[in-house]
Design brief:
Blueprint (H helix, E strand, L loop, with lengths): L11 H5 L3 H21 L24 H8 L6 H9 L8 E6 L3 H6 L2 H11 E5 L13 H4 L1 H15 L6 E4 L2 H11 L3 E3 H9 L1
Parallel strand pairs: 1-2, 1-3, 3-4
Helix pairs in contact: 4-6, 6-10, 8-9
Length: 200
């Protein structure tokens, strides 16, 4: 684990609001912490496969060429993908009968919906991702400041979800979970929390 993890972030909140100096500072701080953690773990840099696009790689980086090269040598794996690829199948003695699943913009962008559904299938016998699911429009902190946007964006999905009761409700992003909980009045939690309980 990188040291000082609680004080680090990807820098996108800074960049999206136009705080370029804050973005540059946070990105540099986080890159250094990630590099040191990977170095302590003995990561084989020359054997690292090409990394998938990330939020950082899709936007102008605040670094010079040496730091861009260091960043390019790191490989980032979403926790849901890691679980699906390396820890499943695993016994789940406390499986749920039914699970409502909310994919996210990020799972679509990263191409990891299949992994999300694999993990969900390990948690519940019946997994439902509503046909009407879409972006919850929480957009970082936008849903905190303008909840009416999220309410409008989730209305169709909320109506579909609340037609019946599920044993649990899951997503894989804290703000999406907040948005969907508000929209449906049902407690959305991170899918990996539910997996942890199912395998305990």
């Amino acid at each position: 684990m990188p040291e000082g993890l609680g004080d680090l972030c990807c820098g996108i909140p800074w960049q999206s609001k136009g705080y370029t100096a804050g973005h540059r500072t946070m990105a540099a701080r986080t890159l250094e912490a990630l590099w040191q953690a990977a170095d302590r773990a003995g990561c084989p840099w020359s054997a690292t496969p090409p990394r998938a696009p990330t939020a950082w790689s899709n936007s102008p980086t605040p670094w010079g060429e040496p730091d861009r090269a260091r960043f390019a040598s790191l490989r980032f794996v979403d926790s849901v993908v890691f679980i699906a690829e390396h820890l499943l199948p695993a016994p789940t003695p406390r499986r749920l009968g039914s699970l409502a699943l909310h994919p996210t913009c990020s799972t679509v962008h990263l191409g990891i919906d299949d992994a999300l559904r694999i993990v969900a299938a390990a948690v519940g016998d019946e997994v439902t991702a509503p046909d009407s699911w879409g972006c919850c429009a929480f957009a970082g902190d936008r849903g905190l400041l303008h909840p009416e946007i999220t309410a409008a964006a989730t209305a169709a999905q909320a109506a579909e979800i609340t037609e019946r009761t599920y044993d649990a409700y899951a997503s894989c992003n804290r703000t999406c979970e907040t948005g969907m909980t508000r929209a449906t009045g049902r407690p959305y939690r991170h899918l990996l929390e539910l997996l942890d309980e199912a395998t305990a």
